[in-house]
């Protein structure tokens, strides 16, 4: 069980570990925790540890073929200024998968990492 002193970890299957590390560190503010590229790396941001598993990693080999594609699951990152983040990321060539959606809790947009895994950027209402 994860305790407050540990990270919450999410595994994403990626086509190219170094490309994924570059995406998460340069565009989304993660830092490298460990790297065994080209098979595996993990990056962290706050309490989130994102496991980036390439085709040669044990995590990718253990996944059934019909479950190995990117789905609707995504990591959720809270931002202070959604519009500024969108402008910054568009300027770096990020691939957005939705328009901004507004709801009672705030505003969000989806972008994709190089392997197509989704990242939700969310600005809570009132910010």
UniProtKB/TrEMBL annotation:
InterPro entries assigned? Anthracycline_SecMetBiosynth (IPR052164), Glyas_Bleomycin-R_OHBP_Dase (IPR029068), Glyas_Fos-R_dOase_dom (IPR004360), VOC_core (IPR037523)
What Pfam families does this protein map onto?
Glyoxalase
All copies of the VOC domain together span: 6-124
Q: What is the protein's species of origin?
A: Actinoplanes nipponensis
Per its UniProt entry, which superkingdom is the organism in?
Answer: Bacteria
Q: What is this protein called?
A: Glyoxalase
């Amino acid at each position: 069980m994860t305790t407050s002193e540990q990270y919450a970890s999410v595994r994403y299957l990626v086509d190219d570990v170094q490309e994924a590390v570059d995406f998460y560190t340069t565009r989304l503010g993660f830092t490298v925790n460990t790297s065994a590229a080209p098979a595996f790396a993990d990056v962290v941001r706050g309490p989130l540890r994102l496991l980036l598993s390439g085709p040669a990693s044990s995590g990718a080999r253990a996944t059934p073929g019909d479950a190995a594609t990117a789905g609707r699951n995504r990591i959720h990152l809270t931002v202070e200024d959604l519009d500024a983040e969108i402008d910054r990321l568009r300027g770096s060539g990020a691939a957005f998968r939705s328009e901004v959606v507004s709801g009672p809790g705030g505003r969000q947009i989806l972008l994709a990492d190089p392997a197509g895994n989704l990242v939700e950027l969310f600005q809570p209402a009132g910010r």
